[in-house]
Design a protein that fits this description.
mainly alpha, 2 domains, two-stranded antiparallel sheet
């Protein structure tokens, strides 16, 4: 657990009437995500923007897509690269691939960023 998560845990514990609840229950009661889920959702939003051309300079080179209609879920899977070093597993492009490939089709094929954000809220809670 990093420092921000400790602060979030301590802060939610200070709310009157929630001292006895677990951290997950306090977050659920306050309708908040854990910081891990918030980071994942931010990463998925950035990936959506890259894949849909918001960042025109590097968007087509940062991810490689594969079209696969044999699988359940979305048909536009992202390809994982081979890793030679463990440190590369923490790169943005590799952090996102596993979770992106598990998103449902209606989330991945969202027509706009706002629609993607709304649809991904429910999906992110199921991914972690």
């Amino acid at each position: 657990m990093d420092a921000l998560e400790r602060v979030q845990r301590r802060t939610t514990k200070m709310i009157r009437g929630m001292e006895h609840l677990s951290c997950e229950d306090r977050l659920r009661e306050l309708e908040l995500f854990s910081l891990k889920k918030s980071r994942l959702q931010g990463d998925l939003i950035a990936a959506f923007q890259y894949l849909n051309g918001v960042y025109k300079k590097d968007g087509d080179r940062i991810f490689s897509r594969t079209f696969c209609n044999r699988t359940r879920g979305n048909v536009f899977k992202l390809r994982e690269g081979r890793l030679r070093l463990d440190i590369r597993k923490k790169f943005f492009t590799l952090r996102v691939v596993k979770h992106w490939n598990r998103l449902p089709r209606e989330v991945v094929e969202s027509p706009s960023l706002e629609t993607f954000k709304v649809r991904s809220d429910g999906a992110v809670s199921n991914l972690i």
